[in-house]
Every structure is written in C-alpha cells, then in structure tokens.
Write a structure and sequence with these properties.
The protein is α+β, with helices and mostly antiparallel strands. It has a single domain, classed as Aminopeptidase, CATH 3.40.630. The protein has helices spanning 6-9, 32-50, 63-69, 115-132, and strands at 10-15, 18-26, 73-81, 84-93, 99-106. Strands 1-2-3-4-5 form a five-stranded antiparallel beta sheet, with helices on both faces. A hairpin with a 2-residue loop joins strand 3 and strand 4.
C-alpha cells in the first residue's frame, strides 16, 4: 500500500439504500478492538451455519489473535466508513508462494452492500501490484 494515493483507496459504495464513503486502509493496532468485534460476528455466524455453539470457545473474538500472529499473514486491511471500521480482510501466503484472501468479514449491518466485494478487490489488486514491483 505504500506509494499508493489516497484517492485509489477511497470508493463510493451505493447498493440498495446505503450510501457511504468507504476507505480501505492498512490495519493498525488501534483497530484491534473493532476487528475483534468483527471476528466475534464471524464466529457467531459460523456457529449458526454449522449448528455448533462451541466454535470459537468462550471468547469468539479471540480468533483474531491467532490470525494476527500467523507468520504467513502478508497484509491486513480494514474498511472504514465515517470513521468506523466496518470490515476487514487480508492475505495469507501459501506454501507455493501464492496467497489466499482470508478472512473477509463485514459488520452485519453493512452486509450485502458491496463492502466485502470492495475488500476482496483491494486485496487482489494490492497483491498484483506487489508481484510486479
């Protein structure tokens, strides 16, 4: 992300009835609490999908700690609207020097409005830029 201009990181998202100015930027330590809350929402969703209330244990946001400590983590970005972190994504390197977009989390109130799509597009374009640099 270094060297990219801010305009390239900003996009106006308008789908359905929500319009917002969305900024996708690198994760900062100050985002930890907001991202833990997002991770807890993801964990709760997995509990519902798989019918297993034990997924994530007693602290459903704790999975973020393991994600951030993953030595294969190449980058993490957050989506911010009006100063609030509403989503996150990242790239995890694989054994064959490829990368996987992991995770893609969007706050429940902002799902189905293009935020996840914007996060994935940002991760892919960033990886492509880094591969050609």
């Amino acid at each position: 992300m270094r060297g990219t201009n801010k305009q390239a990181q900003m996009s106006a998202v308008q789908l359905h009835t929500i319009q917002m100015d969305l900024e996708i930027r690198e994760y900062r330590n100050a985002d930890c609490e907001a991202c833990r809350a997002l991770w807890a929402q993801l964990t709760e969703r997995h509990r519902l999908i798989y019918g297993d209330p034990t997924i994530g244990g007693n602290d459903p946001g704790r999975g973020l700690d393991g994600y951030l400590a993953n030595p294969g983590r190449r980058a993490t970005w957050v989506a911010e609207a009006d100063g609030t972190v509403i989503g996150m994504t990242g790239l995890i390197g694989t054994y064959d020097d490829e990368a996987e977009v992991e995770p893609v989390i969007v706050a429940e109130a902002f799902r189905s409005h293009g935020v996840g799509r914007a996060l994935v597009a940002h991760a892919i374009s960033s990886d492509q830029r880094n591969r050609t640099a």
